[in-house]
Amino acid sequence: MSTIDPPARTEREQQARRRPTDDGRRNGGGWTREQRCELLAAAPPDDVIGLAERAVAEGSPPQLIVGPEVGTVVVQVREPVVGDRFHLTEVLATRAEIDLDGTRGWAMRLGDEPIPTLAAAVLDAEATARRPLADEVMALCDRVADERAAAEHQEWSVLAATTVQFEELDR
């Protein structure tokens, strides 16, 4: 196993990025590349694989640059009182990087998931290059973001019932 490094960005990919709006989405309902990669990593494997298969069927096959490669990623957290950072643990992750018609696609997913990771890399390149299925990639990201927001809202709704209200004593 190896430690996983983030992808290098080409000039073309850097120019393809747009500034996010206040809710994190780009103008036009899309996502920055970092947000898109995060959402593709959380998307259901079957959805990612199915959409990537359609993307590859409509164009040339992707060229593998890296991976899929399984390794570990260090989880770093900040201690809340003093603010010191420390390494909490390492987690297993799979990463892949491909070239799709001159556009690099990159993905990382938790666990040993080579096929969904390759598929997510294809979708990253599809969206970055604004190819025919880019809007469907963004729609998948929108759906995953909405599902995550609903799950977080549900979790906070359950936790809200456990809130303890303290009274101040003026004596």
SSE order and pairing:
Blueprint: E1 2-3, H1 11-16, H2 33-42, H3 45-57, E2 63-78, E3 85-100, E4 103-110, H4 114-128, H5 134-160
Parallel strand pairs: 1-2
Antiparallel strand pairs: 2-3, 3-4
Helix pairs in contact: 2-4, 2-5, 3-4, 4-5
Annotation keywords:
171 residues, alpha+beta
Structure characterization notes:
This protein is elongated. The chain has helices at residues 11-16, 33-42, 45-57, 114-128, 134-160; strands at 2-3, 63-78, 85-100, 103-110. 30% of the residues are buried. α2 packs antiparallel against α4 and α2 (33-42) packs across α5 (134-160). The chain is an alpha+beta fold. Strands 1-2-3-4 form a four-stranded mixed sheet. Helix content is 42%, strand content 25%. Mean pLDDT is 82; it is low at 9-28. It has one domain (2-160). The chain has five helices and four strands, in the order βαααβββαα. It starts with a strand and ends in an 11-residue tail after the last helix.
Proportion of strand residues: 15-25%
- Structural domains: how many: 1
The shape, in one word, is elongated
SS-derived structural category? alpha+beta
